[in-house]
Amino acid sequence: MAALAVGGALSLAGLSGWGDVVLAAGTIVAIVPASWWVFSALRAGRLGVDAIAVLALVGTLAVREYLAGALIAVMLAGGRALEQYAMRRARGDLTALYERAPRWAHRYERDGPRRVDVSTLSRGDLLLVPAGEMVPVDGVIMRTAAMLDESALTGEALPVEHPVGENVRSGVVNAGPAFDLRATSTAEESSYAAVVRLARETEADSAPVVRLADRFAAWFLPVTLALAGLAWAWSGEAVRAVAVLVVATPCPLLLAAPAAIASGLSRTARRGVVVKGGGALETLGRARTLVLDKTGTLTQGCPEVVDVVAAEGFTVRDVLGLAAAVDRMSSHVLAAAIARAAEVRGAERFGAERVHEEVGSGTTGTVGGRLVQVGKAPRGLDSTWMAAQRARAALDSAMTVWVSVDGGVAGVILLRDAVRADAGRTLRRLRSSGIERVVMLTGDRAEVAESVAAVLGIDRVLAERTPEQKVAGVREEAVRAPTVMVGDGVNDAPALAAAQVGVAMGARGSAASTQAADVVLTTDRLDRLADAMDVARRARRIAVQSAGAGIGLSLVAMVAAALGAIPPAAGALLQEAIDVTVILNALRALRPVRGTRVQVDAPTDALLHRFDREHAALRPALELLREAADALDRPSPSTLPLLRHVHDVVSREILPHEQAEERYLYPAMSRLLGDPEATVTMSRAHAEINRLAGRLGRHVELAGAAGPGPEQIDDLRACLYGLHAVLTLHFAQEEEAYFSLIGRAE
């Protein structure tokens, strides 16, 4: 740049001889780094297009086009600087990811909390996490609930509340009052440290589309030399050959592809997705087949209570409360699910004594002087009622936990690994973005896998597969089309490695699957995969578009230069304009991409949060409907009070909730989705809920002091079961269609 400025100034001052000397000196200086770039490329086994730049610089000296040589030198320096800026900007989010790693922690010692280096922490240390500070290691929340900002790690827009006893990951920020944390890992073992290691592995120069840019030199260099030779031979003017070489200098041009890929990596990092290299991102952008594990991927990965059935003499709340009393002392995954359900459904909290857990059998304890057993059915007990519950569980693909009191069955709890609320929407998004085939690959039983596949519309189910059979299944699909495999368990690791792109659910997945995968979802949300695929397709499209456009423009300029229409100096300026244009175009990949993602505004996101919380609070009311319907099989003096209570709950809790949805949520969703008909089916469900609620009210009015008459029983049972079925389906539809959008406000 200095040589160009000084040489130009001397020429304008009438000292053209000295000006040429300075410009020539600048050209010679530029030949040195350009030659080194060519040598480095050859040493790496590539024939870089920087060779054209060296020939152009030498050519300008030979034909005394010193101004053109100086312009090419400026182009090379400017192109490299622009490329470095592009890469820094594109990788800024990944760099920020590991630069913000926790370095300090406040550990409780004898004299209170003391600031210590995070590397000195051990499992079991009690820590204080002040307001506004980062959680330094993985741990369990103690004493008070925590409000955490997880946006930097997961992309969630709103803080998330975590109750006492819940596990939290390092790297999130305390957005509420200070809380205590019991460390469950060291700094090196923490979740955030794992994310940092993944971020450091991320490189943009290995993408197939970038390698195509390198291989471009294999044919472009001979074409350039041939065209330059023809121009010289045809015209007899060496200056035309130099002009061809000058406009064919696309060094910054070919940096557009890696800049676009690196920009894509930056965008995925912002969405809580770490992609281990540009090659994985580029392949993700052209994938056509999606293979998914079931447990922990399409489902929550942990059982949830889906139904509680009480035997004669007990209520649902009795059964759940007694089971939770002894299971709170158990570490079994089913026990934790039962304890959670008891809290959510408001079951009475009993105290238990002399609790004892027997592996493979269950947990026993004394509650209020009665012996309570939770687990397998007591030996020697069997009845028609128990057989009916087993059949019901088999039809629902559910696990059964029997609750016995003093040796007699009090009820049964049905548990199932529920389908993720965002699974259906995510699969639809993936199909609309280019996925043509979805396969479920699982080690679970065929009937369980088929039931999940039926709900989600999966094309093929491969059930009861061993890890070796999973690898074979992935390879079979990979032969047909570029394939992505998604999993989270240790047994998924070989299959993840076998796919063109392996995706690990890293938030709760195993270390083996995370290491074997090419893409890691750092948050426990499947829809982040659809976000990443949207980014990948757009980044790949922009990379190819930028490189292709630049190459095409260079070829046109080369022909014009060969015909004498463009002199070397003008050609240098023209090539610089082309290079800058395509690199800036590549940086478009840094911009937010909507793709198949529905963008939720903040007010609508707040509404979704509100009604999602209300759904959770109304779940016990749905089970109350089922309980009342079951009670009609054995009418008793308590039947009428139960029916009145059910009617009150429907009238005072459920119907106001549905009316509020109709008034506030549905208009907002119609605007968001851009379709006034988008909520029509939901409104129709509201009409049916109102009809059945009115019918239930008339039955309660007609019932005498002794309860509903025999002529009412059949219709009343149908009304209660119908209301339960419609509400259950309606809740599921809203949770999949609407509430799965929570956290998408930006």
TrEMBL record:
A Pfam family annotated for this UniProt entry: Hydrolase
Entries under InterPro entries matching the protein: ATPase_P-typ_cyto_dom_N, ATPase_P-typ_P_site, ATPase_P-typ_TM_dom_sf, ATPase_P-typ_transduc_dom_A_sf, ATPase_P-type_domA, Cation_Transport_ATPase_IB, HAD-like_sf, HAD_sf
Keywords, in A-Z order: ATP-binding, Cell membrane, Membrane, Metal-binding, Nucleotide-binding, Transmembrane, Transmembrane helix
Record field: transmembrane: 48-79, 216-235, 241-261, 542-563
Taxonomic superkingdom: Bacteria
Its membrane topology: Multi-pass membrane protein
All copies of domain P-type ATPase A, residue ranges: 101-199
Residue ranges annotated for the Hemerythrin-like domain, each copy included: 608-741
Localization in the cell: Cell membrane
Principal place of residence: membrane
PANTHER family per record: CADMIUM/ZINC-TRANSPORTING ATPASE HMA2-RELATED, CADMIUM_ZINC-TRANSPORTING ATPASE HMA4-RELATED
NCBIfam families noted in UniProt: ATPase-IB_hvy (TIGR01525), ATPase_P-type (TIGR01494)
Family of the protein in this entry: Belongs to the cation transport ATPase (P-type) (TC 3.A.3) family. Type IB subfamily.
Protein name: Heavy metal translocating P-type ATPase
Protein's organism: Nonomuraea antimicrobica
Source lineage: Bacteria, Bacillati, Actinomycetota, Actinomycetes, Streptosporangiales
